Automatic annotation (TrEMBL):
Ranges where the VOC domain occurs: 37-153
Protein name as annotated: Glyoxalase/Bleomycin resistance protein/Dioxygenase superfamily protein
Compositionally biased region (Low complexity): 1-25
Xref: Pfam families: Glyoxalase
Region (Disordered), start-end ranges: 1-33
Gene3D superfamilies to which the protein is assigned, alphabetical: 2,3-Dihydroxybiphenyl 1,2-Dioxygenase, domain 1
Length: 170
């Protein structure tokens, strides 16, 4: 069976070149496979000791490797966070191109409450709110003022059906 110049099979509909396995599921994900998974986050910081202390306590991660200029924190699920000291001159303008913040998932509602209280104790809490789809979100700032978000439940417990309004807040 032939096709015309537009890629339409003779007597048929246009094709995309994607077979049934590559068609998206109801959530826009490809059914062809799981795909890569986020494994590590790299954060540039002004003060390494302060950042390590903050993230260890908030995210309950352990220090796997540490040098005078960097640290690798690892969570119980093998999630990795690299912290690299950039000194006092480092900048991260919100609204610029690039990653703006990372959303972490609390282990439970109690864990989310623990994170919220810790942020409040450190005067780093910005807001807590429930989204329309049953997710509770806690937003704070790290010691360098970088935004961070912790949510519960995570994507496995509550599927997002809409874009978070927070991403338009700049």
């Amino acid at each position: 069976m032939g096709s015309d110049a537009a890629g339409v099979p003779a007597g048929g509909e246009p094709t995309t070149g994607a077979g049934p396995a590559a068609q998206p599921d109801g959530h826009g994900r490809s059914a062809a496979g799981r795909g890569p998974k986020l494994a590590s986050v790299v954060v540039f910081v002004r003060d390494l000791d302060r950042a390590v202390d903050f993230y260890q306590e908030l995210l309950l991660m352990g220090v796997a490797v540490r040098t005078p200029t960097a640290a690798l924190l690892v969570g119980t699920d093998d999630t990795q966070m690299y912290l690299r000291v950039m000194g006092s001159g480092g900048e991260h303008p919100l609204g610029a191109i690039g990653v703006q913040y990372v959303i972490w998932t609390a282990d439970s509602q109690d864990d989310l409450h623990r994170c919220e209280e810790l942020l409040k104790e450190r005067a780093a809490h910005v807001a807590s709110r429930e989204t329309g789809d049953g997710v509770t979100v806690v937003e704070g700032r790290d010691p360098d003022g970088l935004p961070l978000v912790i949510a519960y439940p995570g994507p496995h417990g509550a599927s997002q059906q809409e874009i978070m309004a927070r991403i338009y807040a700049w």
